[in-house]
Amino acid sequence: MKVWLDVITPKQARLMTAIASFLNSDYLITVKGLGEPASLLKKLGSRHKVVGRYAIGGLKDKLLSYAERVRLLLDTVMDFDPDVLISFSSPEAVRVAFGLSIKAVTMNDTPHSYHVARLTFPLSWRVVYPKAIPENEMLRLGASKDSLISYAGVDEVAWVRDYALSTLPESREFKVFIRPEESGASYLLGRGKSIALELVKVVLEMGAEVIVKPRYESQVEELSKMRAFREGRLLVLRGAVDTLDLFSKISLVITGGGTMAREAALLGTPSISVFPLDVRLYVNEYLRERGFPIWRSRKLEEAERLVTNILKDPDSFIVDTRDMLLALEDPRNVIASILGEIND
Predict the structure, then answer these.
(1) Neighbouring residues of 132: CB distance < 8 A, sequence distance ≥ 6
(2) Exposed, middle or buried by CB within 10 Å (0-12, 13-18, 19+), for 290?
(3) In this structure, what are the phi and psi dihedrals at residue 202, rounded to the nearest 5 degrees?
(4) Range of the domain at 82
(5) Does residue 92 surpass a pLDDT of 90?
(6) pLDDT at position 199, please?
(7) What single-letter DSSP state applies at residue 329?
(8) What is the CA radius of gyration of the chain?
(9) What pLDDT, in 10s, does the model give residues 19-30?
(10) Are residues 94 and 30 in the same domain?
(11) The domain that contains 121 carries what CATH number?
(12) φ, ψ for residue 236 (rounded to 5)?
């Protein structure tokens, strides 16, 4: 069997690498653009092919880059001739798979990302999602009931659990990692200032060192002007980051998204998602209910109070998650079962 996997974000680079290494199949990983996802795939040692580019303009440029990538993927995929596509709601990849009668297995844990869901769910043979998300949410976005397959876990288990079970350190450094919101995503366009970056000053005032992984060059320039940067108390990371090694050694993770918050929480490190939209993050709630140290703040004032409270005694918020991790289902097993249907 030949398996095609498509990557658009850093999370997907982690997820598709984990899936590819788990399967006994010939595979091709395609990645959008030469940015962080491609850098992370290289760091992880995953062979891949860069196909297409990221849009740097508004809606018109997004549509143009979509059309360009569909055309480029068509040539690449026809040469590889896969039996199945695995993606995390990749609009271009799913459209190509549908056009070439390739079975599309679409993973998704973000029903708030309306546009990509609507573009991918209706064309997908199987839609794989965490049980934490109500089935009606997936049906509302265009998935057919027959396509839906849920599992009792979160995507991040696929690449975090083995690491967490074997390498939890005994002590933590008084450092905080901060990742801004993805302001370029369709569902966050025009949302204004980054709450995550506003928290940099709060963390510094608590005496902790700050490690920031910016998303855009403008953020790098802004952070580089701060006094703490010149003093060495603020580190700005460029390029791909080994989040598992980093998150297992520090006191707190703050992110404008969800993936890094869940990675940290699975490792037992307190994490705060400052995702600004007024929507439920079902998978984060699922982990919180099971005792993992993960919180959600939509407003700056609320986040400031939470950060201050955690950093007053960070060790008391660290959780030994090893037994809890064993109770979560690995999505790779679900994918392997689905691929078994094709072989049968």
Answers:
(1) 154, 282, 283, 285, 286
(2) middle
(3) -60, -45
(4) 2-153+329-343
(5) yes
(6) 95
(7) P
(8) 20
(9) 999 998 899 999
(10) yes
(11) 3.40.50.2000
(12) -110, 115
Distances (CA, A) of 103 to 87, 176, 316, 339: 11, 42, 48, 10
3-state SS of 238-258? CCCCCHHHHHCCEEEEEECCC
Q: Which of 250, 25, 34 is nearest to 13 (CA)?
A: 34
> What mean pLDDT is predicted for residues 145-155?
98
Pair (142, 170) in one structural domain: no
User: What contacts 330, CB < 8 A, 6 or more positions away?
Assistant: 153, 157, 158, 161
**Residue listed under structure tokens 């005994």:** 170
Q: Is 313 exposed, middle or buried (0-12, 13-18, 19+ CB in 10 A)?
A: exposed
Contacts of 200 (CB under 8 A, 6+ apart): 178, 210, 212, 223, 226, 228, 234
The number of folded domains in the chain is 2
Give yes or no for residue 276 having a pLDDT over 70: yes
54-81 pLDDT, tens digit per residue, is 887 788 998 999 999 999 999 999 999 9
d(CA 24, CA 199): 44
Name the average pLDDT for the chain: 92
